[in-house]
């Protein structure tokens, strides 16, 4: 028992010293908790960006210089909305669309290809396959639009010959 106690003594001493901070263990004191009662100093460093009181009088034409920086009125009709860009979601939508296409469920496949185009706007594969679905569903005008869009994206792409052949076939009918 005495031998085990002597072997464990250095181990227990190391554990006690590691629980204290190095500065505290050197001085023999326990570490003090950090003082959280003080606020952040960033409030003291805020920059005042308001113009001086006599700014309009000293600079009478300054409004015209920054006129184009002002946001447009809220009733403006030229609002541009952003679509989320997610190529992984688009790829998954194409895979599911291919599944539906193989099952000859062209409407469901078309919905998935359109959703893929929502997440990745100029995806060539989704564009071509949406054109194929539209052709299978009988909407030749939409099919033509998708085939032409594919040819704009990849004029010499792997499906370009098929797209051109489909466009020629639609032109004859």
Mean pLDDT: 79
Topology, number of strands: 0
Helix content: 55-70%
Coarse shape: flat
The termini sit apart by 101 Å
Work out the strand percent.
Answer: under 5%
Low-confidence stretches: 23-28
CATH topology assignment of one domain: Serine Threonine Protein Phosphatase 5, Tetratricopeptide repeat
Radius of gyration: 35 Å
CATH superfamily of one domain: Tetratricopeptide repeat domain
H/E topology pattern: HHHHHHHHH
Reported CATH architecture of one domain = Alpha Horseshoe
Major sheet = none
Structural category: mainly alpha
CATH class of one domain: Mainly Alpha
The total count of helices amounts to 9
Your description of this structure?
The chain is mainly alpha-helical and 173 residues long. The protein has a domain at 87-172: Tetratricopeptide repeat domain (Serine Threonine Protein Phosphatase 5, Tetratricopeptide repeat), CATH 1.25.40.10. Helices cover 59% and strands 0% of the residues. It is built from nine helices and no strands. Mean pLDDT is 79; it is low at 23-28.
Relevant terms:
single chain; 173 residues; mainly alpha; Serine Threonine Protein Phosphatase 5, Tetratricopeptide repeat; 9 helices; 59% helix; flat
């Amino acid at each position: 028992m005495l031998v085990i106690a002597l072997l464990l003594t250095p181990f227990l001493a190391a554990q006690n010293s590691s629980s204290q901070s190095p500065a505290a263990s050197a001085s023999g004191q326990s570490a003090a908790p950090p003082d959280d009662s003080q606020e952040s100093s960033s409030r003291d460093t805020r920059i005042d960006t308001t113009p001086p009181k006599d700014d309009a009088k000293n600079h009478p034409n300054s409004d015209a210089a920054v006129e184009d920086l002002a946001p447009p009125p809220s009733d403006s009709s030229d609002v541009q909305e952003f679509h989320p860009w997610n190529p992984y979601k688009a790829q998954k939508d194409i895979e599911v669309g291919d599944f539906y296409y193989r099952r000859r469920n062209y409407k469901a496949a078309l919905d998935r290809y359109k959703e893929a185009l929502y997440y990745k706007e100029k995806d060539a594969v989704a564009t071509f396959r949406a054109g194929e679905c539209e052709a299978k569903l009988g909407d030749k005008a939409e099919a033509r639009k998708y085939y032409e869009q594919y040819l704009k994206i990849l004029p010499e792409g792997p499906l370009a010959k098929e797209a051109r052949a489909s466009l020629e076939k639609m032109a004859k009918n």
